[in-house]
Amino acid sequence: MIRPTRLTAALAGAFSAGCWPWLWPLVADPADSSSVQLIVGMLLLVALPAHLFVIGTAGGTGTPEGRRIDGALLQRIAAWLIAAAAVAGVMSIYRAVQPAS
User: Fold this and answer.
1) Rounded distance, CA 88 to CA 43, Å?
2) Which of 46, 57, 59, 62 has the most CB within a 10 Å radius?
3) Which candidate, 24, 81, 26, places its Cα nearest to that of 50?
């Protein structure tokens, strides 16, 4: 059973954002036959880490208390998004300062 924390959520967001440059060429050329690779890549590199390290595998309780807004889950989602945005920002700054080849 995986117990998610804000740290695991942030690491999953950073990992997903770091993998996105490898997925982007699959999106950029819609005429290419890479749609299966894009779907598999999104599932393995974005959705799976987000689910495991933000939501976790503990499951719900099934009680009415389980239907309330989960503040800890919202904090983990925010950590995932902030880390992903930070990595994306750093990568775009890095690319901007790279000399043209």
Assistant:
1) 19
2) 46
3) 81
Side chain identity at 2, as an amino acid letter? I
Rg for the chain, CA atoms, rounded: 17
Q: Which regions of the chain are under pLDDT 50?
A: none
Give the number of residues written for the chain. 101
CA 10, 78, 49, 60 torsion: positive or negative? positive
DSSP 30-98: TTSS-HHHHHHHHIIIIIHHHIIIII-SS----SGGGGS--HHHHHHHHHHHHHHHHHHHHHHHHHHHS
Can you tell me which residue has the tokens 């997903």?
16
Q: What is the rounded end-to-end Cα distance, in angstroms, of the chain?
A: 47
Q: What is the pLDDT of residue 51?
A: 87
